[in-house]
């Protein structure tokens, strides 16, 4: 499942540091002085009850929301306040909670979209008239094929992405993010709505992204079984505050976490 050629292009030594981030929306504090560090090449889960601030956190990391105060850094690079496309260009890619694939495009073309920022000649726009553009497109299509193999969809490259089962469409979305050659991948509920079989397969791909490509993953996921199996570290949010953090087993037995999930004082 893992073509060796894919490993070298990736891997990072940069930690993603979230430092004292606060986000306020007219009167409501969605994140309140939250700090955590995503270690290079690790899966870091962000969990918590509904409304805890998980998606807000993602939106700050990807530049969709601007933090009221605090910092986000990737290695030495300050990401705070940068627009989403710049953050993506610096190596932080995301998938969305809801599917965002062009319905009629083939799997190959959907993946190719992820390579747009890496293209020099803009082959999608120039209509491939120049030999150099054709060469570049060939190179990108080869990379798309490698990534399709990596996510187990190389047989489906010429099918319309919209005709695939839901679980495979979500994998295409993950593949498209991988096509950006990210250092950090933000996955917002990547297995929500999947069958048990699709969940297993996607969880295996996520583990493989970390293990074979060395990409750091920030994972928001409600399925605690998957979080506990996949994550190297967990940050727990409740009402916008970080109430616990650490290894999955530690966090699972933390009284504050148990209380937040049961919603009742002990
Ligand atoms: N753009 C916004 N404007 C105003 N309030 C917002 C906005 N985005 C989020 N909020 C509020 O911030 C709080 C945190 O929301 P957020 O979506 O981050 O929670 P979550 O942990 O992702 O929840 P869920 O598990 O339900 O997805 C909520 O009270 C929410 O209503
Ligand atoms: Mg959310």
TrEMBL record:
Domain of life: Bacteria
Keyword Transport recorded: yes
InterPro entries named among the record's database cross-references: AAA+_ATPase, ABC_AA/LPS_Transport, ABC_transporter-like_ATP-bd, BCA_ABC_TP_C, P-loop_NTPase
Keywords recorded for this protein, A-Z: ATP-binding, Nucleotide-binding, Transport
Pfam families assigned to the protein according to its UniProt record, in alphabetical order: ABC_tran, BCA_ABC_TP_C
A single cellular component GO annotation: plasma membrane
Gene3D superfamilies according to UniProt: P-loop containing nucleotide triphosphate hydrolases (3.40.50.300)
A GO term, aspect molecular function: ATP binding
Domain ABC transporter per the UniProt entry, residue ranges: 16-264
Name of the protein: Branched-chain amino acid ABC transporter ATP-binding protein
């Amino acid at each position: 499942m893992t073509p060796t050629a894919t490993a070298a292009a990736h891997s990072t030594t940069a930690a993603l540091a979230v430092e004292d981030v606060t986000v306020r929306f007219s009167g409501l504090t969605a994140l309140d002085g939250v700090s955590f560090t995503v270690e290079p090449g690790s899966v870091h889960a962000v969990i918590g009850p509904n409304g805890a601030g998980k998606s807000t956190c993602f939106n700050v990391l990807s530049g969709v929301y601007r933090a009221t105060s605090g910092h986000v850094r990737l290695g030495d690079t300050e990401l705070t306040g940068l627009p989403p496309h710049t953050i993506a260009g610096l190596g932080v890619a995301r998938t969305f909670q809801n599917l965002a694939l062009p319905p009629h495009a083939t799997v190959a073309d959907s993946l190719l979209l992820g390579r747009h920022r890496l293209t020099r000649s803009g082959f999608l726009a120039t209509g491939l008239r120049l030999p150099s553009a054709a060469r570049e497109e060939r190179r990108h299509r080869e990379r798309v094929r490698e990534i399709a193999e990596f996510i187990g969809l190389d047989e489906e490259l010429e099918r319309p992405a919209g005709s695939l089962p839901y679980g495979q469409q979500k994998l295409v979305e993950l593949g498209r993010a991988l096509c950006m050659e990210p250092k950090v991948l933000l996955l917002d509920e990547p297995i929500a709505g999947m069958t048990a079989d699709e969940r297993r397969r996607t969880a295996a791909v996520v583990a493989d992204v970390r293990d074979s490509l060395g990409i750091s993953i920030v994972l928001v996921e409600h399925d605690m079984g998957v979080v506990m199996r996949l994550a190297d570290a967990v940050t727990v949010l409740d009402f916008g505050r970080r109430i616990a953090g650490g290894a999955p087993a530690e966090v699972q037995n933390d009284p504050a976490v148990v209380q937040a999930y049961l919603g009742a004082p002990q």
